[in-house]
Specification:
Largest sheet: 4 strands, mixed
Radius of gyration: 22 Å
Bound molecules: protoporphyrin IX containing FE
Number of domains: 2
Number of helices: 23
CATH architecture of the largest domain: Orthogonal Bundle
Shape: globular
Distance between the termini: 53 Å
Helix content: 40-55%
Number of strands: 8
Structural class: alpha+beta
Length: 488
């Protein structure tokens, strides 16, 4: 036994080495030289950014139509000569987001309108599609993927781990993506009876930890986020973490805005975001190590075909905990914050309030009654109108012709193509009165919130449907049910 510990340490490795690995995908536009140029020209880039973020015509110029636009920078390999315009464009996106009150859905609606209100608009380094039909078609296909997030090349390995599931292209039974997805199910989301038993324990654990929590207490997002963090960690790894550990894990939700910044923006803010995210990843691994849970990840790593095994194994743990944190804790917190607010006829912090119509329910009591009649439908409809995950980044598998601003253009294979779930979920061709909050709508399961039509009979047609969809609904329901008991 005395010899086992060093052996584990050797196979497990050091998270610092993983986080401090060599940076990938550095292009002329995000080198330190380009950042210095930015600082020297800051007043002008900022001014252009402010105009671009406020005026649709100038936004199109910076993004697509101008001779040095973001689109042209991308198709030319992002060379240095485009840096000035690229930074002006980045500022214009930031200004547009601020103008939208930090609400992504509102930003996407403005961008779509700025590009003529048709199928496509340009954002970041890629083209975004917006209809339910097109998003659904992509989700049902075997997608190509790259290390990209929000149609921007992701900063790896310090902000995102390069081998994370969402960056892996779809493939057959022997592909890396399929192997990882399968193992996530086997080790964390299906474990025979253990998974169900842990979900069944949630209410007792919540009651013990928060004996008197009421719906109104959940107006404080930190309360919801701590509850969600404890529940998710418990179901996947079997430990009810302490309050301090839960406070660390809530960082997966509270730092959400930092994940979306590309390398150039991270450098622009002196890597303050990078440092926070590295600390969050390291502290999350620290919790796994404190409870001695390394063996689960070591076993999982050993069960992978040799070509996919991570060296050291802590790399795999970091990748898995990243998805559990980012999608699991972040997504489920957003979902539960929305549901608890809606039940009180309130709106959560990130919400395009002008797009939500509560007219079917004239009181909080009516809302609660509707929730009790069908909690799962209520949760799904809340997430349809205010999706926790607003879009995902796929990659064009072949040269593709699209119509942009009235002209036909051919986009090259390999370009990022985002599918905008939040807009697809409001497509009037599919959802009658899309802004109306109505958990009884007959085609509710057509909402693409969980990366596929969750609950439809053809669910298995969506190869990348979120593997945590049932868990997220169970956790949200357990928390809301507990708060409703104390509120009565
Ligand atoms: C309301 C909560 C959640 C929502 C709305 C949500 C939604 C999504 C979406 C849209 C994707 C696709 C992302 C992409 O491909 O870029 C995704 C992927 C994923 N989610 Fe969730 N998720 C939630 C909760 C969870 C939970 C609780 C877990 C597990 C603990 C989880 C695990 C995953 C994993 C592993 C993937 C990657 C699947 C793949 O790439 O094949 N999610 N989720």
């Amino acid at each position: 036994m005395a010899e086992a510990a060093p052996l584990i340490d050797q196979r497990w490795g050091s998270i610092d080495e993983v986080l401090d690995g060599p940076l990938e995908d550095i292009v002329p536009n995000n080198t330190w030289c380009a950042i210095i140029l930015l600082w020297l020209t800051l007043p002008l880039t900022l001014l252009l950014g402010i105009i671009g973020g406020s005026c649709a015509c100038f936004f199109r110029l910076l993004g697509w139509t101008g001779c040095c636009s973001a689109y042209k920078s991308v198709i030319n390999g992002q060379p240095c000569r485009y840096s000035f315009c690229w930074f002006s464009y980045l500022f214009s996106m930031l200004v547009a987001l601020l103008k939208s009150g930090g609400v992504r859905l509102r930003l996407f609606m403005w961008e779509k309108k700025s590009f003529g209100g048709k199928e496509y608009f340009w954002h970041g380094e890629g083209v975004w599609c917006t209809s339910w039909a097109r998003c659904d078609e992509i989700m049902r296909s075997m997608q190509d993927r790259k290390k990209a997030f929000g149609s921007l090349t992701a900063p790896v390995p310090d902000v995102f781990p390069p081998g994370i599931a969402i960056f892996l292209p779809c493939g057959g039974n022997d592909s890396e993506w399929w192997v990882i997805r399968n193992l996530i199910h086997t080790y964390f989301l299906e474990m025979a009876l253990q998974y169900n038993a842990r979900v069944a324990d949630l209410d007792a654990n919540l009651q013990q930890n928060w004996p008197n929590v009421k719906l109104v207490d959940m107006d404080t997002p930190a309360v919801v986020q701590q509850m969600v963090s404890k529940c998710i960690f418990y179901v996947v790894l079997g430990k009810w973490v302490t309050d301090d550990e839960a406070a660390i894990l809530t960082g997966w939700r509270t730092n959400a805005s930092l994940f979306v910044f590309p390398r150039a923006t991270q450098r622009m803010i002196f890597n303050l975001g990078v440092k926070k995210i590295k600390k969050l990843r390291k502290d999350t691994i620290g919790i796994v190590e404190k409870y001695g849970l390394q063996e689960i990840f070591l076993q999982m790593n050993d069960s992978m075909p040799p070509q996919y095994r991570r060296v050291p194994a802590v790399k795999l743990c970091d990748e898995i905990m990243y998805v559990f944190g980012f999608a699991g804790i972040g997504g489920t917190s957003a979902c539960t914050e929305t549901v608890s607010a809606f039940l009180q006829l309130k709106l959560p912090k990130e919400c395009a309030k002008e797009t939500i119509d509560f007219s079917k329910y004239d009181s909080a009591a009516a809302m609660v009654e509707c929730y009790k009649a069908n909690p799962v439908a209520y949760i799904k409809e809340s997430c349809r109108v205010n999706p926790p995950v607003t879009s995902a980044t796929s990659v064009l598998k072949e040269d593709t012709r699209i119509e942009m601003l009235g002209e036909e253009v051919t986009l090259s294979k390999g370009m990022y193509r985002q599918y905008t779930l939040s807009l697809a979920n409001r497509d009037p061709e599919v959802f009658e009165e899309p802004g109306l909050f109505n958990p009884q709508r007959p085609n509710l399961s057509k909402a693409l919130t969980w990366n596929g039509a969750f609950g439809m009979t053809n669910e298995e047609d969506y190869p990348r449907i979120c593997p945590g969809r049932n868990l997220s609904v169970s956790v949200c329901k357990a928390i809301i049910d507990r708060a409703l008991v104390s509120s009565e």
